[in-house]
Design goal:
The protein has about 300 residues and is mainly α. Helix content is about 70%, strand content about 0%. Helix 1 packs across helix 10 and helix 2 packs across helix 3. The longest helix has about 40 residues. The termini are far apart. The mean pLDDT is about 85.
Length: about 300
């Protein structure tokens, strides 16, 4: 094929990739509207992370589908294999994430009950319990988040139930991740800003949508549905980009950990650790501010910036 003939082929390939990307974004965004279907989106993202790891390691894996499975394994697998794999990997990731987030989420829920809720009800005798539980939850949160993004990539690459908790392998990956790990944490917090800002939409709705206070219940519901869909698409898009980036960082770090390369300097690892703690503490601030904007108790347990991609 001549160079002149190859140019339209490359353009056509780019157009098809762009169309597939738009379709994936729309489907993923629609799935992220519901907490149940968002598990399917999480499974698709986990499989995409696995694909990113394999490509970084020089492989040529099959691109993940929403419904169709791989060819050559019978018509049932071809017809619904992709959907079944997305559900399976989504459930595995959701359970692992729930267990990883349970300690600090439970501490924060108890702190909310013993702190703010206790203050609202004038139960000052136990006023110490709320802050104590909350700061304990912060300490656990920071310890978890230093490892969680790359631990999730490890589970995507390994494909095993609860591979996220394979501490020895994850620790070695984190040690060899370099400053890319810090940049990933910063980007995660940065992209979480609009999510937590959206919690204040109810508070500032009148300023954003003039005459909102005079809307009928049907009109209010329409505005809420449009805003919810926009947030869901944003959640999925940011997850897609961040998770694939985490997968590439994981692949490089895992390769360095398995090689005979010298271990990173301790002082460098310490500086990166402090940087990660400071950055993830910024996410704690966003969580607290978002909670003041929306007092729903379950918001302490659902963290769309790093958990299941649903923002209800």
């Amino acid at each position: 094929m001549s160079v002149a003939a190859d140019i339209p082929a490359r353009r056509g390939s780019r157009v098809m990739r762009a169309v597939r990307g738009i379709v994936d974004l729309v489907v993923g965004g629609l799935l992220c509207v519901s907490p149940v279907t968002s598990v399917i989106a999480l499974g698709w993202l986990m499989r995409r992370m696995g694909v990113a790891v394999e490509r970084q390691q020089g492989g040529a894996p099959e691109v993940t589908g929403w419904i169709l499975g791989p060819r050559g394994r019978g018509w049932p697998t071809r017809a619904l294999g992709g959907l079944a794999a997305n559900i399976r990997d989504g459930v595995k990731a959701a359970l692992a994430l729930a267990l990883a987030m349970l300690p600090f989420s439970l501490l924060w829920l108890l702190a909310w009950w013993a702190g703010w809720d206790n203050s609202f009800n004038k139960g000052y005798e136990q006023a110490w319990a709320g802050p104590a539980l909350f700061f304990a939850g912060i300490a656990v949160f920071l310890a978890v988040m230093v490892h969680l993004p790359l631990a999730l990539a490890h589970q995507a690459a390994a494909g095993r139930w609860f591979a996220l908790f394979e501490w020895r392998q994850v620790r070695e990956v984190v040690r060899n991740a370099g400053w890319g790990h810090v940049a990933l944490a910063f980007a995660t917090v940065f992209f979480a800003l609009p999510l937590f800002a959206s919690r204040s939409l109810v508070v500032f709705a009148e300023g954003i949508v003039p005459g909102f206070a005079d809307f009928s219940p049907e009109e209010v519901m329409q505005v809420e549905e449009i805003a919810g869909l926009a947030v869901a698409v944003y959640v999925f898009a940011s997850f897609w980009w961040l998770r694939c980036w985490a997968a590439r960082i994981y692949a490089r770090a895992a390769a360095r950990a398995a090689s005979d390369a010298p271990a990173p300097w301790r002082i460098g690892r310490f500086i990166r650790l402090i940087s990660l703690v400071v950055i993830w503490f910024g996410l704690v601030v966003l969580i607290v501010v978002g909670q003041f904007m929306n007092h729903s108790w379950w918001a302490w347990a659902q963290h769309p910036a790093f958990g299941v991609p649903w923002f209800g």
